[in-house]
Structures are given as structure tokens and as C-alpha cells.
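The authors assume throughout that readers already know how a fold can be written as C-alpha cells. What matters is that the chain and its backbone geometry are given together, residue for residue. A single example would do more here than another paragraph of explanation. For illustration, here is how one protein appears when written out as sequence plus C-alpha cells.
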Amino acid sequence: MAPRRAINQDGSSMNSLDTEVLTLARQWVSEGHTVHLATVIKTWGSAPRQAGAMLAVRQDGRVIGSVSGGCIEDDLIAQAREGRLPATPQFVTYGVSQEEAARFGLPCGGTLRLILEPLSLPGWLDRVVEATAAQELIGRWLDLRTGVSTLGKAHPGETPALSDQQCHFVYGPHWRLLIIGANQTARALAQIATMLEFQVIVCDPREEFTADLSMPGVGFQPGMPDDAVGEIHTDQRTAIVALTHDPKLDDMALLEALKSSAFYVGALGSARNQSKRRERLKMFDLTEEEIARLRGPVGLAIGSRTPAEIAVAVAAELVAVRRKFEDERVGGVTGKPARED
């Protein structure tokens, strides 16, 4: 179940990197600029960016996004200014030889394969920008012969892939974060997590905390926290963080979260309070293994004190746990296009 409404009362936005790149690329095209989109399709070795990383470049060298540490960007900018970027979708590989890897600043053994495409048929951009801004996952299939794009559903874990004469891309968040509580720490964490490609959902039944809340692009799940864990269909790509400092709310959510398949469950509070919380949780139908899943005090130990610092610590731990989870799993399977753009 999707969040019932977005907390977006001031018209501003907290955009993911996908949305930022595609939004500005769409603006450039609408202004009459020649724009190319570069997307990492596959990497070998210690490549600086993962598959799916994007960069948009204008004919005058203006860029948004990144596909490497900078040297490949410099090469693409030079090609754009000299009018040497392709008129049809084409593949380009960087870092095949040691000489080229050194030239483009790639790590030892690192290789990137990109697809470069002119945005001369940009109709798909509107729908993709709309979807990613709403924190939805969407797939695009690019016909390498015609340059025509087809849009359809995508699934978490899917990665860019080649199939016959098509190239498959996935945009939007592959991960979700349910935050229990709508305080300052939650606001800071929501902003950081959105940029980290999480779909962020907030649950707080206290009207005093949500009446004037503004979290652009963040979903709001009404009701009690324990119900929210089930209603959003928590899965292995969901993280749950309790931040209210109110045991009546935090513990209710944790009782359900620790029994779920969420890849990360954490709660705010000192080590002493966490010890008390674990004792309380033993009074319910949780196993020792389930209670041991609780990360508390939540976040990496960086000496954080302010809401923003705590949010940074939590976000850093989320990234570390997510990366470990990704490294232990095999990539998703590419689906098939569902509709024409």
C-alpha cells in the first residue's frame, strides 16, 4: 500500500539524483539546446560509478550528473563542444587498456560501458520525471535502432540491461524508509534519504507534530505505527527507524518491524534506554534473534548530537547495511515493456 498523502505543503522539493538530472535535461531540451544523456550500462572491476548512473551534457559543455570521478565527464564535455557526440544511440567503453584507464582516472582494472543517446525524442522525459518526483519506480526500454523509448513497470532490484536491440533502464527508488515520528531529526533524515534514492514514508499519529509539517516529496502513512509496518507491505528492501522518543509509539512499531523482513530496524535513544527497551521487548512474542536485529542506539557512532548530525549518522548506517545487502544478492531480472510512450 502506498502512503496516503504527500507531506508537500510549500511547493519545494527534495529530489533524488535521477530526478535532478532528468528534470534539468528536459528543461534544456525545451529551451532548444542539443542534449545528450550518458548512462552507465555495465561496469567491470573497481569502476567509480554503478550501472544506472547518469549524466546529461549540452552542446556548450554544461553538465548535470556524473558517470565517473570527472575525467570521463571532461571527455564527454569536449566531444559535446566539438559536436562529436552521436546522432543515434551508441555504446562507448572507457578503461579497456591500462593506458586508457590511467588517462581517464579509472581505478586499476576499472572499466565503464556507457550508452550515449541524443534527447531528440524526449517525450518519455515528462513521464519519468513525474514518476521519480513522486518516488515511483519506472522502467524504460530504448530501441537502439530507432531511438524510440517505451515505458512500463519496473521492479526493485532491476538494473540496466541489454536485450536484443533494446536497452533497459530503471529510474526511481529501489528502497524504502519508514520513519516513525515527525520531528526535526525525521525531517533531516527524510531529506538525506531521498537523495540516497529511498522512497521515504513518515508515520506519526500525533496531530501536534503533523499539522504544520512540510516534507516535500515524502509520503505520510496515517494511523498507528504498528499498523503502518504492515500496511506498507514491508519487505527486504524496507528500512524502519523509530525516532519519536516515545516508547508507546516506538515500541509498537518495533514489535512488528523486528518480526518483518525489513533489512534494517533501528531506534533512537541512548545505550541505557536501548537496554531498557530490549527488556520491554522480551515481554512480548519476540525471539532473542528478532530482538538482536534492533540497531540501537541507531546510526554510526560519530558523536552526533544535533538532529542533522543524528540524521547523517543514521543515513550512513543505512548506506552501509544496504550496500552489504546488495553485495550478498544477485541482481534483479529485467522485465518487458508494458506500453508505448
Summary: The longest strand covers residues 35-44.
